[in-house]
Each structure stands twice: as C-alpha cells, then as structure tokens.
Amino acid sequence: MQADAKIRTEVGTESGPRGPVCSLRHFACEQNLLSRPDGSASFLQGDTSILAGVYGPAEVKVSKEIFNKATLEVILRPKIGLPGVAEKSRERLIRNTCEAVVLGALHPRTSITIVLQVISDAGSLLACCLNAACMALVDAGVPMRALFCGVTCALDSDGTLVLDPTAKQEKEARAVLTFALDGVDQKLLMSTTKGLYSDSELQQCLAAAQAASQHVFRFYRESLQRRYSKS
Amino acid sequence: MAEAAGVAAESLVGGRARAACTVLNQVVLPGEELLLPEQEDAEGPGGTGERLRLNAGARPRVRVVCGPGLRRCGDRLLVTKCGRLRHKEPGGSGGGVYWVDSQQKRYVPVKGDHVIGIVTAKSGDIFKVDVGGSEPASLSYLAFEGATKRNRPNVQVGDLVYGQFVVANKDMEPEMVCIDSCGRANGMGVIGQDGLLFKVTLGLIRKLLAPDCEIIQEVGKLYPLEIVFGMNGRIWVKAKTVQQTLILANILEACEHMTADQRKQIFSRLAES
C-alpha cells in the first residue's frame, strides 16, 4: 500500500535572478496503517514525517456537543515532551482549515478527532501536518467538500523563494509562509506567515504554492488510486 | 491499473466536472463534480447549455438518487468521499442510483440496515445497544418476537443482538427492532452464547453480502457454519470447533485484500488440507 512518488519540478529557474525555484521534496503516504482509529495516514515530506489518526463521527462529550454540526478536534503531539504554545497554535490553524472543508452538518452532535503525531521534524511541519490530516480524513470516510493540502514557502535574505523548505532553510529564511489550499480551484483556506515580506512577495509565494499544490493533489490521486486498485 | 493511470493523467483534481458515466467504477475523490448523463447533452460542444436549461420544464425530469458519498450541488453531483463510483440502472425510466463504494470503518446508522449490536445497558423498558455509531441505539423490550408486557424477552447486558433500524437519521437517536413488520423474528433476535464476533471494514461486508459473491459459497463448502453479517462491519461466526471458527474468521478478514484469483487459490488449498 506504500505509495511513493518522486515529484520534483523546477519552474522558472531561468526567469531571472529572483525567479522562484519550485521544488518539493519527496512525498510518501501510507493509509490505513493503524487498526484502532477509523482512519489513519502517515505522510512524509523529505525527512519530515507525521502520523495521523482520525476518529469519527464518534460520541461526543455533552460539554463539547454542537447541536447542528460535528465538533472537530485536532490534537498535535510533539515528538518529545508535552504540547506547548506552538503546538496549540498549529492545532488551531489545522482545525480551522479542516472545518472549512469537512461537511460537519451531516453528522450533528458527534465528534471528529484528528490526532497528529510528529515522527520527525525536518522543516515544513505545518504543511506536512495538513497533508497527513487530509489523507487520514479521506481514509476515515469523513464527508468533505474538497481535498486540501499545505504548502510552505521560505524567502531568504536575497528574496529567493524556496518551496517546502528544510529546517535549515527555514531557520536562515527571512520569511516563512504556509498556505492551505483547497483541491477544487486552489483557493486559499488558511495562511500563516512569519517574518518580513513585501506585498508582491506574498502574491508570488501564493502563486508558487498554488502551482506546487497541483503536484500534491496529483500525488493524492495516485496514492488513493493505488489504495483502491484491489477492490 | 493501466486504465486508471490514464484517467489520472488527463484529469487532475480540481479539473472540470466530468460526466458520471465516464468515471463509473473508477476512483473518485472528494470535491469532484460529476455531470449527469442528460446534462452532458445540454452542455455539449455547442455551449448553449445555460440557455437550454431555462426551459427545463419541457425536458422530461430524470430522477437520480444520490447514495452515500454523493451530494446534490446545484444540478451536479458533488463527491464527498473517496472510493469507486457505482451506478445501478433503474427499474423503470430515469437516472438510477449513484453511490461511492468506500472502505471506511466507522458505521453511520441507516434506516433498514441489519446490524449486530451489543447490549450495554438495561433501563426500564428499553435496552441500549452499541452498534458502532456515534450514539447507542435504543431497543424496546417489546420489539422481540412473542414479547408482551408480561412475557419479557431474556436479554442480558453483554448479549449480542441482530436487528434492524426503524429510526435512523442524523437528528434522532437510532432505534432498533428485532422483528419484521409482520411481528416475526425472521432470523433476528439475540445471538447464541458462543461463537466469535470480529470487526471488518464496511466495504468488505457489502462485498460479502453482494448477491454474486462467491466467498460465502466457498466458505460454506469448507465447514458447516453459522454466520451473521451486520452492516455495521461486525461478523459473528460459529463452527463446530474453536479451531474451525478461528480459521473461518481469518479467511474472511483476509478476503478484503485479495483478488478473485488469490481467493480461489486459498480455498483450493484449504479444501485439500
């Protein structure tokens, strides 16, 4: 069931000194690898690896019950130690993204819980979390309006755009931008940024992320087709 | 696999809506939009689709039923689950039924489904039954064959019951019964003492219960057995000995990820031993 695809593209390397170099690291995804959760997926982007489990639509605590839609909960576990402020902030970003695509109104008074375990962090952690969450939600059969993916861009000091940066590139970067895009028309679902960048650079990053998301979605399709090839 | 790859190349996720009949039995992903057959004609190369739709009253209306994994989105079908798109031809005229065959584990109660439940509580005149959904189903003590107020059925907490949903929708508590509309048990009721209950994916249950499924016939030839399939992904099986029961359970679990040829091999090997 292991689906591995090397997707590396170089777009516009010769369009000038500030042209974006769009290259994503390797993807790998495995679905349905855990037996207890309703849906699970592990997603690898280069050396960054996330394991995701989805429970739901399941029973919900009365205190968290929402009468007209499902309660979405995201739990992000770091590799070591207890979750801190950074994890809580990421959880919230992932939850807001998922809420935008999950059709929660179809399962009112239930809970959908997404548990994300960081296996290794080598940059673009939030993007990888989003991708793992999406594949696990698809595996669990949670009704969704669209697929979604996360793409991280880094801008270094001379304005070069690096897609899917490694931890080292992230640290050296002037700005790091993460976008969540939906699979229907690559519209922006969520964005979070850190650092200093200009208006035009933001647009440039978004365009590069949208182009890169096509590769992610193509990878999703390939790996899901492989999964259903035996039925 | 080769044809599947061809389709992937020509249409990316987020590509334009495809006609439902061209993707039948292929993998569809959430977010895809499907055109119904009669809309294809209207939105042909002429591009006058929008005009034609204005006098839609003149066209015969086609009834299309959206099964699991599909939703009506304007005049198109929106896919909400990943799986293979299936279609059933209607009896009379019309568009028939479309649905997505997915391999999920979590059960969502559906009216009329036959399920295996575990009695978790007895409170007054109802039993609470765990069916694997988001909340326990209720089962009245009068909903058994021959039960009256005086003559209560012998159901204990922890028992397995095989029943059918009479109320199941997203807003209400699901309700089960163990009798049919004539008041007969018809195979439903408390399941006997021993035997083995195990869980499989919902896709496998549907595959096993399909009318043209050869697995059940093959399994029946191996050992004499009693078997109950619940649409909620639970299978209860009982053979003469514990060993035979375990073999049967393992075969059924393994059937999911095997092709028809592989299954044939396994069954012929088991028949020899």
Provide a concise account of the structure shown.
By secondary structure, chain A is α+β, with helices and mostly antiparallel strands. Chain A has helices spanning 85-101, 125-140, 167-172, 199-227; strands at residues 3-5, 27-31, 39-45, 48-58, 71-77, 111-120, 148-155, 161-163, 175-182, 188-195. Chain A has one domain (27-229): Ribosomal Protein S5, domain 2, CATH 3.30.230.70.
What structural class do you assign from the helix and strand content of chain A?
alpha+beta
Mean pLDDT of chain B: 84
CATH class of the largest domain in chain B: Mainly Beta
CATH topology of the largest domain in chain B: OB fold (Dihydrolipoamide Acetyltransferase, E2P)
Q: What structural class do the secondary elements of chain B suggest?
A: alpha+beta
> How many individual helices of chain B?
7
- Cα-atom Rg of chain B, whole angstroms? 23 Å
The portion of residues assigned to helices of chain A is 25-40%
Q: Categorize the overall geometry of chain A.
A: globular
Order the strands across the largest sheet of chain A as they lie in space.
1-2-3-4-6-5
Which spans of chain B have pLDDT < 50 for at least 5 consecutive residues? 1-15, 42-58
How much strand content do the residues of chain B show? 25-35%
Mean pLDDT over all positions of chain A = 89
The beta-strand count of chain A equals: 10
What is the oligomeric state here? heterodimer
Question: Based on the structure given, which CATH architecture of chain A is correct?
Answer: 2-Layer Sandwich
Q: What's the helix-strand series of chain A?
A: EEEEEHEHEEHEEH
Based on the structure given, which CATH architecture of the largest domain in chain B is correct? Beta Barrel
CATH superfamily of chain A: GHMP Kinase, N-terminal domain
> Are there runs of chain A of 5+ residues with pLDDT below 50, and where?
1-22
What is the strand content of chain A? 25-35%
Protein name (chain A): Exosome complex component RRP46
Keywords (chain A): Cytoplasm, DNA-binding, Exosome, Nucleus, Phosphoprotein, rRNA processing
Pfam families (chain A): RNase_PH (PF01138), RNase_PH_C (PF03725)
Domain Exoribonuclease phosphorolytic (chain A): 24-143, 147-211
